[in-house]
UniProtKB/TrEMBL annotation:
Keywords: Lipid metabolism, Methyltransferase, S-adenosyl-L-methionine, Transferase. Signal peptide: none annotated. It holds the Pfam family CMAS. Gene3D superfamilies: Vaccinia Virus protein VP39. This is SAM-dependent methyltransferase. GO terms for biological process: lipid biosynthetic process; methylation. Belongs to the CFA/CMAS family. It comes from Deinococcus indicus. One of its GO terms (molecular function) is methyltransferase activity.
Length: 342
C-alpha cells in the first residue's frame, strides 16, 4: 500500500510541476474531501482513512496498476522494464533482501491486493500471513491467492498492525515485510509500530520496511501541494511522512539493528509515470468510477508526485532491519552480491 503521500515542507520554489498547470482546476467545493471521526491514528480512525483511499473500487485500481495490482514503487534495474516486469522485480528484490527461504513464515503488514504474499508463496515456498484494514483489498487478495493455487499457504486477515502479536506463531515470524504501510502509522505511533514488529519477529529474523519519506534538504514542495493543504484533505487522510533518520531512530530504539538502506526514488518516479499514463488511457472508465471532480484530483496527484520523486522532494527507502539472535548474530551475508545473482 505504498501509495505516494505528498510531504509537508515550506517552499520558496516554483508553484507546480511541469504539466500540472495543464490539468483541470481543483474542485471548487469540498467534494472528495475526507471527513474522519475520532482521535488521529486511533484504530477506528485508521480504518476510516484506509477505507477512504483503498476501498474506492477494485475495478478502478485495475485500470492502471499492473496485473498483480501492486500499489507501491516498482523496481527498474535496467530502465527498460514494463510496469508488470518492474513490479515483479520489486517483489523479488524484497524477498531477496529478506533472504526468504522455503517454509519460512512471513508476516506481510499492509498486504494490499496480495501481490507480495502470493509471490513469496509461489517463488519461495513461504507461508504468509497478510494483514490489511481494507475490506475491498482483503476480498480481492483472497480470490487471487485461490486463483494462484496458494490459498493453503497464504492467509489474509482484516487486522490492525497493533493486534499482530495475537497472530504471531509460537517463537515469532521468520520474516516481516511492511510495504507502503508505515506512511499511515503517524509519528506518534512509530515506537509502537516498531516494538510490535520486533516482538513478533523471532530472534535472527529480518524485517523490510519499505516506505516513502521526506526528500533531500535542498528540495521544497509548493504550499498548495503540502499534505495539510491537498493530500491529507483529498487523497491520503492522516498520511504522514518521516525523514529517514527518524525512521531509523524509532527502529533502533525498538532494538532493531539496521543492516541496509536503499533509496529508490527514481524508480518511484518511473512507476508513477506508468500509472499516470495508464490512467489517461482509461480516462473514461476512471471518470465514471470516481466522478469528474475526484478524477481530476487523481490526475493531479499522480502527475505531481512523479515530478517530486524525480526532483528529490520525496524519497522511497527500503530499510532492512535485523533482530539479532541470542549470540547477537544477524543472519545476512557478508556482502550484497546475492541480491543481484541469477
Amino acid at each position: 500500500m505504498d501509495a505516494p503521500t505528498l510531504p509537508v515542507t515550506p517552499d520558496p520554489g516554483p508553484a507546480a510541476a511541469p504539466g500540472v498547470n495543464d490539468l483541470p482546476a481543483l474542485p471548487p467545493t469540498e467534494a472528495g474531501n475526507a471527513s474522519l471521526e475520532g482521535p488521529q491514528h486511533s484504530r477506528e480512525r485508521d480504518q476510516q482513512a484506509i477505507s477512504y483511499h483503498y476501498d474506492v473500487s477494485n475495478d478502478f485500481y485495475k485500470l492502471w496498476l499492473d496485473r498483480r495490482m501492486v500499489y507501491s514503487c516498482a523496481y527498474f534495474p535496467t530502465g527498460t522494464e514494463t510496469l508488470d516486469g518492474a513490479q515483479e522485480a520489486k517483489l523479488d528484490l524484497i524477498c531477496r533482501k529478506l533472504r526468504l527461504q522455503q517454509s519460512e513464515y512471513l508476516l506481510d503488514i499492509g498486504s494490499g491486493w496480495g501481490g507480495l504474499a502470493i509471490h513469496a508463496a509461489q517463488r519461495y515456498g513461504a507461508r504468509v500471513l497478510g494483514v490489511t484494514l481494507s475490506e475491498a483489498q482483503l476480498h480481492e487478495a483472497r480470490a487471487r491467492a485461490g486463483a494462484a493455487g496458494v490459498a493453503d499457504r497464504v492467509t489474509f486477515e482484516l487486522r490492525d498492525y497493533r493486534d499482530v502479536l495475537a497472530h504471531a506463531p509460537e517463537g515469532g515470524f521468520d520474516k516481516i515485510a511492511s510495504v507502503g504501510m508505515a506512511e499511515h502509522v503517524g509519528r506518534r505511533n512509530m515506537p509502537t509500530y516498531f516494538r510490535a514488529a520486533y516482538t513478533a519477529l523471532k530472534p535472527g529474523g529480518l524485517m523490510m520496511n519499505h516506505a516513502i519519506s521526506d526528500g533531500i534538504p535542498q528540495a521544497r514542495v509548493p504550499l498548495w501541494l503540502q499534505s495539510g493543504n491537498f493530500a491529507r484533505k483529498y487523497v491520503f487522510p492522516d498520511g504522514q511522512l518521516l525523514p529517514i533518520w527518524e525512521t531509523v531512530k524509532h527502529a533502533t530504539e525498538a532494538q532493531f539493528e539496521v543492516r541496509d538502506i536503499e533509496n529508490l526514488r527514481e524508480h518511484y518516479a518511473r512507476t508513477l509515470t506508468h500509472w499516470a499514463a495508464n490512467l489517461e488511457t482509461h480516462h473514461a472508465e476512471a471518470r465514471a468510477a470516481l466522478g469528474e471532480q475526484r478524477h481530476r484530483l487523481w490526475r493531479l496527484y499522480l502527475g505531481a508526485t512523479s515530478h517530486y520523486f524525480e526532483k528529490g522532494h520525496l524519497g522511497l527507502y527500503q530499510t532492512l532491519l535485523a533482530k539479532p539472535d541470542e549470540q547477537r548474530r544477524a543472519h545476512v551475508p557478508l556482502s550484497r552480491a546475492d541480491l543481484y545473482e541469477g
